[in-house]
């Protein structure tokens, strides 16, 4: 699919395609052409030109999302291209903007917004090398520290110290880049480039380090907080976090697995849960909440009833919800506003079919994403599911991996899915008849890949043919066996893998020591 380009954009491409000529001629370029030239350079991956454009940026703000998004001159959105060449040139250009004393342009730049960059699975850039959120965090922190060292050592124009640019960024911190980010945040006051953290994700970090760095980020500006995987945050730590830090602008909160476990609750724990709910109620902007893999049986109401703003996104996958939890969700004021819902890991058709479908009907007018993985949805439930999904005319994404459905049932379901006008992405299970007879669900990791691959390919082709015949080539259908693509996990999987091996080794050593003592 080719996107139309205006004559202005075609001229801009021609201008930047000769990097040497473009760099020499920048001083004669009108201010209002810089955004046009930036997008053209980004499309052609002209790193040197990008660097010089940013180094001499003549405008008050530099917003990556707007600059790379759809424009009148070129409709294609390039904000999902996390091209390493382009982004590195951008950030080093920003550093040199501060240092360049001979630029013909007045230094007006006040705000740089890097939050519009989207990390996606498939990259279209020629270099095929991406710079994800973790690497952007590392590079910006590094450049801020280098800039300070240089300013302290070199004879700079006094005007350089008056430059103050807020750099809005989504930080991603792990053990491996922690020290550099801390240094950059500690010296924020003296650095012309001031890191302003809008979203913060932490993984593979000790609690002590997490608590220290979160205070440095200026939590009053934070809109999104993700504490994931290898940050061992439990309920008492969460209460401590909410008691010591206020998050007035927080819109999205993701908590790690096992933050809550009501099976071992005491009276004090019940009070703690109430306190956490009340603190969340004070976050008047909070509309997205993810608490997967916690055990929350019978406590959903206590936790989210204090919220004053309706939730638009709720992930309570594998949280052992009971009928009372589902009834609360179905009847709560959140139900009419839910745009994304994940109830994976719950046997919805057996435990609470009527309340689940009541919840689905309440959110049907706004629901965009529904995830029902490992929910024991069988062939006999398909007609009921179709009935429940029929009003969801805004549904863009439906994920139902791990359900024991036959090829026939999937074809029936796909025929219906073609009728949902906004649908773009479907993640469907390997059909039950592709696995050996007697397979039990949920399927364990060891058996997950032991299916008839040729038969699966034939069924997948038939399902895609159903889409094709209904003129729905716009729908992507896939079976990601080990879960959907996660850019953050993908980028740091080496570090996380090493951490898991280290944890396993330590556990094994403790076990061996205990065993030897017993012997």
Describe it.
It contains 19 helices and 13 strands. With 519 residues, the chain is of the alpha/beta class. The chain has two domains: 7-131, no CATH class; 217-502, Ribonuclease Inhibitor (Leucine-rich repeat, LRR (right-handed beta-alpha superhelix)). Strands 1-2-3-4-5-6-7-8-9-10-11-12-13 form a 13-stranded parallel beta sheet. Helix 1 (7-17) packs across helix 3. The radius of gyration is 26 Å and the shape is globular. The chain starts with 6 loop residues before the first helix and ends with a helix.
Query: What is the alpha-carbon Rg in Å?
Result: 26 Å
CATH architecture of the largest domain: Alpha-Beta Horseshoe
Query: How many domains, in number, for the residues?
Result: 2
Number of E-type strands: 13
User: What structural class do the secondary elements suggest?
Assistant: alpha/beta
CATH topology of the largest domain: Leucine-rich repeat, LRR (right-handed beta-alpha superhelix)
Helix count from the secondary structure assignment: 19
């Amino acid at each position: 699919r080719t996107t139309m380009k205006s004559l202005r954009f075609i001229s801009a491409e021609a201008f930047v395609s000769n990097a040497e000529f473009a760099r020499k001629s920048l001083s004669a370029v009108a201010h209002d052409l810089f955004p046009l030239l930036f997008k053209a350079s980004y499309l052609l991956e002209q790193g040197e030109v990008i660097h010089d454009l940013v180094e001499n940026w003549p405008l008050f703000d530099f917003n990556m999302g707007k600059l790379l998004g759809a424009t009148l001159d070129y409709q294609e959105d390039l904000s999902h291209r996390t091209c390493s060449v382009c982004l590195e040139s951008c950030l080093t250009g920003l550093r040199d903007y501060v240092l360049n004393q001979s630029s013909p342009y007045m230094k007006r730049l006040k705000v740089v917004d890097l939050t519009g960059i989207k990390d996606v699975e498939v990259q279209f850039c020629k270099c095929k090398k991406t710079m994800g959120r973790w690497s952007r965090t590392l590079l910006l922190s590094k450049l801020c520290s280098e800039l300070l060292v240089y300013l302290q050592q070199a004879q700079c124009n006094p005007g350089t110290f008056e430059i103050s640019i807020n750099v809005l960024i989504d930080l991603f911190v792990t053990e491996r880049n922690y020290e550099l980010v801390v240094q950059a945040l500690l010296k924020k006051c003296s650095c012309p480039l001031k890191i302003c953290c809008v979203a913060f994700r932490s993984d593979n970090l000790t609690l002590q380090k997490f608590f220290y760095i979160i205070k440095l980020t200026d939590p009053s500006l934070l809109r999104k907080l993700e504490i994931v995987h290898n940050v061992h945050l439990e309920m008492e730590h969460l209460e401590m976090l909410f008691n010591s830090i206020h998050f007035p602008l927080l819109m999205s909160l993701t908590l790690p697995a096992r933050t809550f476990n009501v099976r071992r609750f005491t009276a004090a724990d019940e009070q703690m849960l109430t306190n956490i709910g009340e603190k969340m109620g004070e976050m008047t902007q909070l509309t997205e909440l993810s608490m997967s893999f916690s055990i929350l049986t019978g406590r959903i109401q206590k936790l989210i009833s204090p919220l004053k703003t309706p939730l638009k996104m709720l992930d309570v996958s594998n949280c052992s919800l009971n009928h009372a939890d589902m009834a609360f969700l179905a009847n709560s004021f959140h139900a009419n506003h839910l745009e994304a819902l994940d109830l994976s890991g719950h046997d919805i058709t057996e435990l609470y079919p009527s309340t689940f479908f009541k919840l689905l009907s309440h959110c049907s007018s706004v629901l965009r994403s529904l995830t029902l993985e490992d929910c024991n949805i069988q062939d006999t439930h398909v007609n009921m599911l179709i009935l429940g999904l029929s009003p969801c005319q805004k549904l863009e994404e439906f994920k139902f991996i791990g359900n024991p459905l036959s090829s026939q049932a999937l074809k029936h379901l796909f025929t219906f899915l073609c009728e949902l006008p906004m649908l773009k992405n479907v993640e469907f299970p390997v059909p039950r008849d592709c696995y050996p007879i007697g397979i039990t669900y949920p399927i364990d990791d060891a058996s997950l890949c032991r299916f008839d691959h040729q038969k699966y390919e034939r069924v997948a082709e038939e399902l895609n043919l159903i889409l094709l015949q209904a003129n729905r080539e716009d729908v992507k259908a896939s079976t990601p066996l080990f879960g959907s693509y996660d850019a953050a996990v993908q980028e740091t999987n080496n570090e996380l893998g090493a951490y898991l091996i280290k944890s396993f080794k330590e556990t094994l050593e403790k076990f061996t020591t205990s065993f030897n003592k017993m012997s």
